[in-house]
């Protein structure tokens, strides 16, 4: 039919000329190519190559970072076509369009990224999405609509990412507070005095009892009679008979004891009771006597330049002879002995008295009250008193702030640390505790800055700095800092995140508190190291200790490649 129709109507063309035949074939080829291009773009969506890296998202810091890529092959995209691509987050709570990119053909009048027909295109785009909880149990799909001229077609969704690893959120925010060394009360200087006696005498002369040092001593004793210890030491010079000197030294000590008892208004019905015995009943009292003080004599001679024969005298005094032999040898030294007798021996006929104030009745009452408190309450009461005793020191405010942080009283801790920093702005303990306070509120960048300042001020806080780096996504720093810290759950987590699996394994085995969280973290480490036995046995232990880990494991993207495996399902049964 077609041939006959041509023969009747094309007499002057001699049927098909060679040129006409070629023209018809070219035209047909153009029509076929255009039709083929339309068919490709609308009917072969599999030729579009969608990729996302990583295929399983990872929460790092406060965001999720990924790169989406679309490859469109050559001679696929219609010159007047349009491709609308949407990156869609699909979660149990619904769908969220994360981004939309439109691609257009070379001759399209629509707006979008132009795709050359001959060469196609490969387009990548990076994303840093602020993390949302729904990311954890979600998938990412690319939703595409193709349009050629007036014909449009919705392509099937293409899944490019599955769930989000949120392992960094397993960290325990147990930041360590620092307490400063408590200042010690300045000891009250002991009140001391020396009462000198005439040779062979034990009575106290008036001019001796009225000396300023003696009166100061007696005044201190009277004002604070039960706040210290009294020591009395009676002496005799090394001249004369030893037995007589023994008695004399004791009598001199007793004379001073009698003077002190009168200062304290001694009242007793026992007339025979010695003053020293009465003093022992009233206060901490210690009385001794030392007959011949050869050591003091030697010291005086050694430091004196008044004796030409001092080396000879020292030889006699330090010799092995008896006391009486030493006295006789010294007396044979003539003029030198006279200087000795006039200048040095009188200073040895004495009683030394000392009052050491080391007892505070108010302090004793506080200690008794503390003993009746709980340990927590007693610790707080001590810190309260520290502020009272040292109001101009930062230590009490800092240490009480540390106590409040440990007990969850953050507002009070903030107030105390503000006062502490006013008193000592560069204290390592205060700076560290300000960091802990910031971290407790989730302000990890502020906390990191405070910890850095504390470290520069001398604090050894690798643990706090490493722990703070985890939620900030600085896992290399977390791993390096924690590697220097004591073995702990958080140390293992930091090393896992830093992909130091050997270090994590070593630290894991040294932990003694093996709770459900410990075994769950061990399962994650096993999965990352492709150690199926380690993963499954640890999951079983974690679920046995806390059933909440069963559902968590089912949704945790750390185990995404195991979700559909029988051994995984058995391990969390």
Explain what this protein looks like in three dimensions.
With 573 residues, the protein is of the alpha+beta class. The protein has three domains: 45-165, Sandwich (Immunoglobulin-like), CATH 2.60.40; 169-180 and 358-486, Tetratricopeptide repeat domain (Serine Threonine Protein Phosphatase 5, Tetratricopeptide repeat, Alpha Horseshoe), CATH 1.25.40; 191-350, 60s Ribosomal Protein L30, Chain: A (2-Layer Sandwich), CATH 3.30.1330. 47% of the residues lie in helices and 19% in strands. The protein has 24 helices and 15 strands. It has helices spanning 2-9, 18-43, 206-209, 212-223, 242-263, 275-282, 294-302, 310-317, 323-331, 335-344, 361-371, 375-389, 394-406, 410-423, 428-440, 444-456, 462-469, 475-483, 489-497, 501-509, 516-528, 532-545, 548-555, 566-571; strands spanning 49-53, 57-60, 63-72, 81-91, 94-105, 113-115, 121-130, 139-148, 151-154, 158-162, 164-165, 191-196, 228-236, 285-292, 350-357. Strands 4, 5, 6, 8, 9 and 10 form a six-stranded mixed beta sheet that branches. β8 and β9 (151-154) form a beta hairpin. α17 (462-469) runs antiparallel to α18 (475-483). The protein is rod-shaped, with a radius of gyration of 48 Å. The protein starts with a helix and ends with a helix. 32% of the residues are buried. Mean pLDDT is 87; it is low at 1-35.
């Amino acid at each position: 039919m077609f041939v006959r129709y041509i023969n009747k109507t094309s007499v002057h063309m001699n049927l098909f000329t060679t040129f006409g035949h070629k023209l018809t074939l070219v035209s047909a080829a153009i029509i076929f190519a255009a039709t083929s291009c339309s068919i490709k773009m609308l009917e072969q969506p599999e030729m579009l190559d969608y990729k996302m890296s990583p295929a399983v998202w990872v929460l790092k810091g406060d965001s999720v970072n990924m790169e989406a890529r679309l490859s469109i092959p050559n001679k696929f995209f219609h010159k007047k076509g349009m491709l609308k691509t949407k990156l869609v987050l699909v979660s149990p709570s619904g769908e969220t369009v994360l981004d939309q990119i439109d691609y257009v053909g070379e001759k399209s009048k629509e707006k979008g990224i132009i795709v050359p027909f001959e060469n196609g295109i490969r387009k990548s785009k990076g994303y840093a999405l602020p993390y949302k909880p729904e990311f954890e149990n979600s998938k990412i799909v690319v939703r595409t609509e193709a349009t050629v001229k007036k014909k449009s077609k919705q392509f099937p969704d293409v899944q490019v990412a599955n769930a989000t690893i949120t392992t960094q959120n397993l960290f325990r925010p147990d930041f360590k507070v620092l307490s400063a060394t408590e200042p010690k009360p300045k000891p009250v200087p002991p009140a001391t005095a020396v009462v000198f006696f005439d040779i062979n005498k034990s009575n106290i002369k008036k001019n001796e009892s009225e000396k300023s040092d003696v009166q100061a001593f007696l005044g201190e004793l009277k004002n604070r009679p039960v706040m210290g210890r009294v020591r009395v030491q009676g002496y005799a010079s090394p001249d004369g008979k030893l037995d007589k000197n023994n008695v004399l030294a004791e009598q001199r000590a007793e004379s001073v004891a009698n003077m002190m008892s009168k200062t304290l208004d001694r009242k007793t019905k026992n007339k025979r009771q010695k003053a020293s015995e009465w003093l022992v009943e009233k206060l901490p009292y210690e009385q001794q006597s030392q007959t011949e003080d050869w050591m003091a004599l030697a010291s005086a001679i050694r430091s004196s330049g008044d004796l030409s024969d001092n080396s000879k005298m020292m030889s006699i005094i330090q010799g092995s002879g008896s006391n009486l032999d030493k006295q006789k040898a010294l007396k044979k030294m003539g003029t030198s002995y006279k200087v000795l007798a006039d200048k040095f021996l009188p200073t040895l006929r004495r009683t030394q008295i000392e009052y050491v104030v080391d007892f505070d009745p108010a302090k004793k009452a506080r200690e008794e009250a503390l003993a009746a408190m709980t340990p927590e309450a007693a610790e707080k009461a001590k810190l309260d008193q520290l502020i009272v005793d040292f109001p101009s020191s930062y230590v009490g405010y800092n240490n009480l702030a540390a106590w409040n942080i440990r007990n969850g009283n953050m507002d009070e801790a903030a107030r105390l640390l503000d006062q502490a920093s006013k008193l000592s702005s560069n204290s390592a303990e205060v700076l560290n505790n300000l960091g802990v306070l910031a971290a407790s509120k989730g302000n990890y960048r502020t906390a990191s800055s405070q910890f850095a300042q504390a470290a520069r001020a001398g604090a050894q806080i690798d643990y706090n700095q490493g722990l703070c780096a985890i939620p900030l996504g600085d896992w290399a720093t977390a791993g390096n800092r924690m590697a220097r810290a004591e073995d702990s759950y958080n140390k293992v987590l930091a090393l896992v995140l830093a992909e130091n699996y050997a270090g994590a394994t070593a630290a894991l085995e040294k932990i003694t508190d093996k709770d459900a969280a410990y075994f769950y973290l061990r399962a994650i480490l096993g999965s990352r190291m492709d150690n199926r036995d380690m993963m499954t046995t640890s999951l079983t232990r974690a679920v046995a200790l806390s059933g909440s880990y069963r559902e968590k494991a089912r949704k945790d993207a750390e185990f995404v490649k195991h979700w559909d495996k029988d051994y995984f399902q058995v391990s969390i049964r």
